[in-house]
Amino acid sequence: MHLAVIIDPEQERIYTTFDASGVELERFADLCAMIPDVSLAGNLKIAGNAELSADPFEIFSLSVEGEVFEADFAVKGVEIRNRADQGHGLRPVRLTLNKDGTDRYLVNLSGFDIVSPIPVQVLDFTADFTKTLSGVGCAGKIRAKVEKSVEHDTAVNLVFRGDYSPEGWTFDAATGDPGLSGPVFETGGLLLESGSPQFKISGKGSGQEGSAEYIVRLPGLHAKADSFKVALPRVSLAGHISALSGNFSLDGMLLFSDGMMSDEKRKIAISGISGEIPLKWPCLEPGDKGKLVVESVQINGMELGAGLVRVCQKGMSIVVEGEQKVGLIPGLELNFSGEAGFLGSDRFEALIDFEIPEYTPAFPVELGDFLPGAAGFSVHGTFEGVGALSCSGSAYNCSLKGALSSGKLLSLEKGMEVEGINVSLAIPDLLALQSAPGQILTFEKARMGKIEIDGGAIDFQIESGGSLFVEKGVFNWCDGRIHTQALRISPLREDYNLILFCDRLNLSMLLEQLGSVQAEGGCTVNGRIPVRWNRGKISFNDGFLFSTPGRGGKIRLFGTEILTAGIPVDSVQFAQLDLAREALKDYDYKWAKLGLSTEDEILVMRLKLDGSPAGPLPFVFREELGGFARVEATAPGSNFQGISLDVNFRLPLDRILSYGKGLSDVMKMMQDVSDQKSLDRR
User: Fold this and answer.
1) Which DSSP string corresponds to 542-578?
2) What is the mean pLDDT of the segment spanning 266-275?
3) Cα-Cα end-to-end distance for the chain
4) How do 184-187 and 190-193 pair as beta strands?
5) Is the pTM of this model over 0.70?
6) Nearest 5 degrees, angle CA 263-CA 369-CA 264?
7) Nearest 5°: CA angle at 129, between 165 and 2?
8) Do 211 and 240 form a contact (C-beta atoms < 8 A)?
9) Burial tier of 460 (Cβ tally within 10 Å: 0-12, 13-18, 19+)
10) What is the mean pLDDT of residues 130-157?
11) What is the reported pLDDT for 567?
12) DSSP helix/strand/coil, 245
């Protein structure tokens, strides 16, 4: 350290210059310890000169310039450090102090950041201290910006003044003339922007005790990241600051209204956002509760209704809990709770858990209200679920684990009904609507027209983009089972091919459901049925089912009038088909085969049987007819040692599947499309 002193006895003046560098402020730790909650660290470089008198002591002029490197100051929780200068390391904290012969002291500070409690860059601090009759007055200006600001011309000017005397002190401060634009800064991937902020504070006190009132207004606050946007037209924070024995505390009420949030990519729109949130600092325990109101929540154009959220502060975060009523489903409510804020990091984070309590709607829910492609379908049952919404900066995700029990799916238009549905669905990404693989849906009974399935299970996954991947399916049909292969169903695809692998289907039940006849018998068939779905139409391509080789049995078919419908009674053809009808009433088969195919919209079933009637048939051979003719019941008939039957059923498939008409209506439909049946006699 260099110090030079010149004394002028005649003028009773002392002239001094000083110059020091590398002064470690930690050496003054003992002195700082005399002031509670104050710490000082860094390297000081200082130079200056002064003109003063010793008796009485008076400073006539003073000029000091100093720089502090590696600064780390803390006063009552307010932490100050050097500012980073891009490409040049850390800027020193610069200090100038001047007195020009009057009672005014001019102080200027620059090049430092307030790290906590709120990160702020102080670009310039200028103060004018003036000695008054009762004490000291000051006035000045602070130019500052939020640390994460990405535009340098959006700093805020704060003008202040104050007075101090042994009796007490007063001060007030306010923002200067509003600029053309407000701050723009980035944090955690979010770009925040607002109009020019407005701030006003005034306070008074004595010694280390005092209080102040403040208000902050942020007009037009906006946040955005990619397709995510938030807009709050009016935001204000007003409250009270108190100081007691040097300890500061702050409380306030954050108000905002007419807000909106949207995400074009995920098709989310929330409007009518308003809130009243009590805040305080420091906040060691959860504070008073406020509220957040949402008037409308829409996802994919679906209106989910309004919501009320109860909020309270906890540290630097907000604890939330509330309910969201789902407008599309009367009575359905979403309960949620969680925490949002700066959870131990410099980016906004949130973790909200939600729950759908066990709920059974009073009326079936129309699926067309949620998915336009499902118009005409309704679902009923007991719903429940749990999920979580997490957010880190601009990235967020929503997961759901839901369940439907004792469910029922119904379409009166298509004649479809599925009962006893049970499914647990895990969706790690609800916003992308993508489930985990290996989800399982089971049901107890399904009906489509006259086709009835006695339960089954489907392993599936909902994929992003609206695709459904069916990993496998097993269905109980006609006392047997049907297995399906893997199939991916895409919203843009309208043509699918699927093979049904059939295991031990009861032939009699199959013929009843597809052929609209009454059947009995224990014949079981196996095989495969290729199915095509094209633009909502079902067709079969050379399906083939056969009985177990070497195992015969009995089959009985009744109500087979469809075999002779539309054929003249006095024709040879009618007599042959009439014989076949009679034989099928009680037939012992050695083997059976059934072919399935479609021609246009007609289902063609080709039934082939090899065996013989169980007893005599009321038919005798007539040479003049060249075939068999029916005789009276009292007349003896004929015994057939062996007869092979080849019978074709032609059925209007779409109408049977879609409408499920009664037996008489189906028979009437089939009269219009009946075809020549053949009989091979041996």
Assistant:
1) SEEEEEPTT--EEEEEE--GGGTTTS-TTSHHHHHHH
2) 86
3) 130
4) antiparallel
5) no
6) 10
7) 115
8) yes
9) buried
10) 75
11) 83
12) coil
Q: Which two tokens stand for residue 529?
A: 């049925």
Do residues 311 and 277 make contact, with C-beta atoms less than 8 angstroms apart? Answer: yes
Q: Tell me the pLDDT tens digit for each residue of 185-200.
A: 666 566 777 777 888 9
Q: Which of these, 162, 73, 79, 65, lies nearest to 118 by C-alpha position?
A: 79
For range 182-186, the mean pLDDT:
64
* Whole-number pLDDT of residue 339: 85
110: helix, strand or coil: strand
Q: Residue 682: is its pLDDT beyond 50?
A: no
182 vs 467, which has greater pLDDT?
467
Check whether 533 has a pLDDT greater than 90: no
Instruction: Please name which of 531, 528, 529, 514 lies closest in space to residue 478, comparing C-alpha atoms.
Output: 514
SS3 readout for 145-192? EECCECCCCCCEEEEEEEEEECCEEEEEEEECCCCCCCCEEEECCEEE
Query: Cα dist. 596→246, 497, 528, 593, 599 in Å?
Result: 92, 15, 10, 10, 10
Amino acid letter for position 194? S
Residue 313's pLDDT is: 87
**Distance between CA atoms of residues 195 and 454, nearest Å:** 66
The structure tokens 């509003």 sit at: 178
**Token couple for 578:** 């009439």
- The first and second tokens of residue 637, run together, are 């008939």
Kindly state the average pLDDT of the residues 481-486: 93
Q: 608 versus 227: which is more confidently predicted?
A: 608
Q: Give the per-residue pLDDT at 394.
A: 64
Poorest-confidence range of 89-93, 527-531, 642-646?
A: 89-93
Burial of 656 (0-12, 13-18, 19+ CB in 10 A): buried
Radius of gyration, alpha carbons of the chain: 44
Structure tokens given for 41: 């660290």
Q: Tell me how long the chain is.
A: 682
Average pLDDT of the chain is 82
| Cβ atoms < 10 Å from Cβ of 180 | 8
| Residue 72 confidence (pLDDT) above 60 | yes
Ordered DSSP codes for 66-86: EEEES-EEEETTEEEEEPB-T
User: Over 46-64, what HEC string results?
Assistant: EEEEEEEEECCEEEEEEEE
Q: What is the 3-state secondary structure (H, E, C) of 285-353?
A: CCCCEEEEEEEEEEECCEEEEEEEEEEEEECCEEEEEEEEECCCCCCCEEEEEEEEECCCCCCCEEEEE
Query: 318-360, pLDDT tens digit by residue?
Result: 888 888 777 667 778 888 888 887 766 566 778 889 898 888 9
C-alpha span between 528 and 500 (Å, rounded): 5
Whether the link from the prior residue into 56 is cis, omega within 30° of 0, is: yes
